[in-house]
Write a structure and sequence with these properties.
Helix content is about 35%, strand content about 25%. With about 500 residues, the chain is an alpha+beta fold. It folds into 3 domains: about 220 residues, BirA Bifunctional Protein, domain 2, CATH 3.30.930; about 100 residues, Anticodon-binding domain (Rossmann fold, 3-Layer(aba) Sandwich), CATH 3.40.50.800; about 70 residues, Translation Initiation Factor IF3 (2-Layer Sandwich). The strands form 6 sheets. It has an 11-stranded mixed β-sheet, sandwiched between helices. α2 packs across α6. It binds one RNA strand of 78 nucleotides through α10 and α11.
Length: about 500
RNA sequence: CGGGGUGUAGCGUAGCCCGGUUAGCGCGCCUGCUUUGGGAGCAGGAGGUCGGAGGUUCGAAUCCUCUCACCCCGACCA
């Protein structure tokens, strides 16, 4: 591992790539746009996944698994849906290879499929084809199913975690008897996403609605959580869609009501992906590397023992043993680094990997009954008594979690601007970055004009919008919505 | 798809214009000794179809032709 990362100030996007590869979160796969999630990065994803998995189970959802392959014809059943995904679908056309007679292989033309198969870019279509079979009566509703899966979207330009051809995610697909119930579900999930982001990833988010042009292909309404990254660009971190009866119509899914009427089912779908790992990196990372929120960090405490010889190593090991047992009994994820590298090397490496707390113990500490704790968030060093460690570590972890959130929130507030004129708007987007909170007349024309001129898009129409006396920043007409504009990933 | 660029060890590169010893260097890797509280030092060592194919030549990493792959900018996407 070469020393250091490219500073954020020099080139943010190179900084980002350096962190991902040097902290061993991920590596490039052999096919362009693909990514190998390495054990350390996968552990981070698993922790995020486990937290959210419990949240949805507690609210009555269950997990299932639907096929990777979807008949091509299914995609076309919902007009807007196919419009949105057609340009990025991987399509399976053949089922066999054969030897080319030399050293390579070629596609066997005899194995051409009658109906081509699409690798899922999202699963609404297969799932609703199945829901048609499973739903007959109001007694079958609501149906609250989630799946953890991979999906493929053949993107032109990819970036590790943020946009890859294949990614891991969770997609929830629910069916309800009434529009209200489906809307409640959409907002319930939005709330869980916000909780996941803020309480676990320590990443403050704006919640609200997408504009017509930014909403999911096939949805009536798309709600989202939107975060601000360290380079002052916005990132969509999760979406929850109210699908109305669009998919029920496309797949003819009806149910009988109590009073024996036939009605179309109402639907939602919602997802978060491995993109959240990228969000964590860009929300908290600094020029030394990652800074991971304790609640989702693969290791919460890394132990760097310091010793001269075999004898002092044994002494340090024995000294550490009861301390580490106490921590582990307290449910803390502890990693011991006994590798034959210098302490300085290990300090730098674990800082790169963002472990929230480092515990150093050396001969001096053994002698004095002490230990050294170092916070990754602030770099602060604490010299503590051996017996205090078990008590102080959980408190520090809690404080680090809070500090990371507060720092991110301060950063976002400092980079959320209100503007009084369109010139001011353009200047802010071009020179300051961050969010601009302002009025919008609700027309596609204004939205498009602003995007073309400034590259900024409406990230979200916040739930707490206030349009009183607000005017559209572009047209000057009375504002239909208060919105947050930003340049986005 | 348009414009530009790059392919030499696991990674980063020198050499190419102007053909000529055993293709050099840094990081990493292996072995040993000394080290270890902020990226250790010394010694020894392993590792190369110079992207691929063809050609010119006594001789090609170097010159020519073809080809493949990747990167950047634009377009596309979010």
């Amino acid at each position: 591992m070469s020393k250091g990362v490219t500073p954020q100030s020099k080139n943010y996007s190179v900084w980002y790539t350096d962190i991902v590869t040097k902290a061993e979160l991920a590596d490039y796969g052999p096919v362009k746009g693909t990514m190998v999630i390495r054990p350390y990065g996968f552990s981070l994803w698993e922790n995020i996944k486990d937290v959210f998995d419990s949240m949805i189970k507690e609210t009555g959802h269950v997990n299932a698994y639907f096929p990777l392959f979807i008949p091509k014809s299914f995609l076309a059943k919902e007009a807007e849906h196919i419009e949105g995904f057609a340009k990025e679908c991987a399509v399976v056309t053949h089922t066999r290879l054969k030897s080319d007679g030399e050293h390579g292989v070629v596609v066997d033309p005899d194995s051409k499929l009658e109906e081509e198969v699409v690798v899922r870019p999202t699963s609404e279509t297969v799932i609703w084809a199945m829901y048609k079979k499973w739903i007959q009566s109001y007694r079958d509703l609501p149906l609250l199913i989630n799946q953890w899966a991979n999906v493929v979207r053949w993107e032109m330009r990819t970036r590790l975690f943020l946009r890859t051809s294949e990614f891991l995610w969770q997609e929830g697909h629910t069916a309800h008897a009434t529009a209200q119930e489906a809307l409640d579900e959409t907002l319930l999930i939005l709330g869980l996403y916000q909780k996941l982001a803020e309480e676990y990833l320590a990443m403050p988010v704006h919640t609200g609605l997408k504009s017509e042009s930014e909403k999911f292909a096939g949805a009536e309404a798309t709600y989202c959580i939107e975060a601000l990254m360290g380079d002052k660009r916005a990132l969509q971190a999760g979406t929850s869609h109210y699908l109305g009866q669009n998919f029920a119509k496309a797949f003819d899914v009806t149910f009988q009501t109590k009073d024996n009427k036939e009605e179309l089912v109402y639907a939602t779908s919602w997802g978060i992906s491995t993109r959240l790992v990228g969000a964590v990196i860009m929300t908290h990372g600094d020029d030394k590397g990652l800074r991971l929120p304790p609640k989702i960090a693969p290791f919460q405490v890394v132990v760097v023992p310091i010793f001269r010889d075999e004898e002092s190593m044994v002494a340090v090991k024995n000294y550490l043993s009861p301390i580490l047992s106490t921590l582990r009994d307290g449910g803390i994820r502890v990693h011991e680094d006994w590798r034959k590298e210098s302490p300085g090397f290990k300090f730098n490496e674990w800082e790169m990997k963002g472990v929230p707390l480092r515990l150093e113990v050396g001969p001096k500490d053994v002698e004095n009954g002490k230990a050294v704790l170092v916070r990754r968030d602030s770099g602060e060093k604490l010299f503590v008594q051996k017996d205090e460690v078990g008590e102080i570590v959980p408190k520090l972890l809690e404080d680090i979690q809070k500090t990371l959130f507060n720092e991110a929130k301060d950063f976002r507030e400092k980079n959320t601007h209100r503007v009084s004129s369109y010139d001011d708007f353009k200047d802010t987007i071009a020179n300051k970055g961050g969010f601009v909170r302002c009025g919008w007349d609700g027309t596609r024309e204004s939205e498009r004009a602003i995007k073309e001129e400034t590259k900024a898009t409406i990230r979200v129409i916040p739930l707490d919008e206030n349009t009183a006396e607000l005017k559209c920043i572009y047209s000057g007409k009375p504002a239909r919505h208060e919105v947050l504009f930003a340049k986005a990933y």
